[in-house]
Amino acid sequence: MRTTTLGTHGPRVGVIGLGAMGMSFAYDMATPRDEATSVSVIRQALDLGMTLIDTADVYGPYTNEELVGRALADRREHAVIATKVGMEAIDPTGGPGGSPLVKPNGRPEHVRAAIDASLRRLGTDHVDLYQLHRVDPEVPIEETWGALAEAVTAGKARHLGLSKVGVEQIQRAQAVHPVTTVQSEFSLWTRDVQAEVLPYCTQHGIALLSYSPLGRGFLAGRFASFDELPEKDQRRRLPRFQQDNLQANLDIANGVRAVADRVGATPAQVALAWLVAQGPHVVPIPGTKTPKYLTDNAGAADVRLSPGDLAELDAVPAPVGGRY
Ligand SMILES: NC(=O)c1ccc[n+]([C@@H]2O[C@H](COP(=O)([O-])OP(=O)(O)OC[C@H]3O[C@@H](n4cnc5c(N)ncnc54)[C@H](OP(=O)(O)O)[C@@H]3O)[C@@H](O)[C@H]2O)c1
């Protein structure tokens, strides 16, 4: 797979990465997980050149990093491990629909303890990218970011990233320690970063890690009605997936499919190729626990969209329903 550099001084990674969240968290929680398959998907990702593996301490909660650690045990040096800190599970079943209830915790003492716990679960002595999952509204970002920077000084993290932030928060963090990446939802149906965050990142040599790049599966053409969503699945609470909105949003999925049919690719590949075409600093991290989807997603790196294809995708309708 072609590679790109994360930010100005970050590691080289495949132009498409892998998000590990759904292997243990958020989606289809009523179906028991096939951990052996998830482990092989992570290992296969490396073989395909998808070297950036994204996880977070709170995914699971606290089991997704262990899964990633198991998968990478004998090939640590081939992976660029990105994990996150700054959210904690305060009740394992107290969230909506019996999901874990999580909340931000950006206190420096939490970050200092969390990096050691993450390294233990991941089975490594350092992570390549340590990301602040959410800015804690009760803690100045400078204090939280300063604690992440201590992890770099201590050799426990190589580079730092932010998640779900605006330009002002990026600037405040930059004044304390360089920002290598910003992780934001970015896809054909979620483009708010194009207004300010993406231009800022481009100008300042910061990579944009695009999360939920497949619109949580919707842009890949997975869901034609609300009833197709699995039980105990975060998407059941999201406005865009409610039946009437979802029906209206099928125009978007159909627009992606039309281009895919024309260029001989799958809708998922077109959704990812559109992101890759936004510039070398945009790296999508699609999530999957399914071997055939992983191969499909890797193939997106070879899909070239013409200016006409890109214009057609740019023109798909805006979604009905907010993100949350
Ligand atoms: N920073 C944050 O706050 C934040 C928030 C959300 C996500 N993330 C990160 O971003 C990663 C990706 O986001 P996401 O998982 O929310 O959404 P996504 O990548 O947009 O979509 C994942 C869904 O799409 C399905 N899928 C994947 N490839 C497919 C293909 N080729 N064809 C058909 N269906 C396909 C998956 O199915 P299966 O799982 O059944 O294979 C899963 O249901 C996460 O794993 C996580 O690392 C970060």
UniProtKB/TrEMBL annotation:
<feature type="domain" description="NADP-dependent oxidoreductase">
    <location>
        <begin position="16"/>
        <end position="316"/>
    </location>
</feature>
<dbReference type="InterPro" id="IPR036812">
    <property type="entry name" value="NAD(P)_OxRdtase_dom_sf"/>
</dbReference>
<dbReference type="InterPro" id="IPR023210">
    <property type="entry name" value="NADP_OxRdtase_dom"/>
</dbReference>
<protein>
    <submittedName>
        <fullName>Aldo/keto reductase</fullName>
    </submittedName>
</protein>
<keyword id="KW-0560">Oxidoreductase</keyword>
<dbReference type="Pfam" id="PF00248">
    <property type="entry name" value="Aldo_ket_red"/>
</dbReference>
<dbReference type="InterPro" id="IPR050791">
    <property type="entry name" value="Aldo-Keto_reductase"/>
</dbReference>
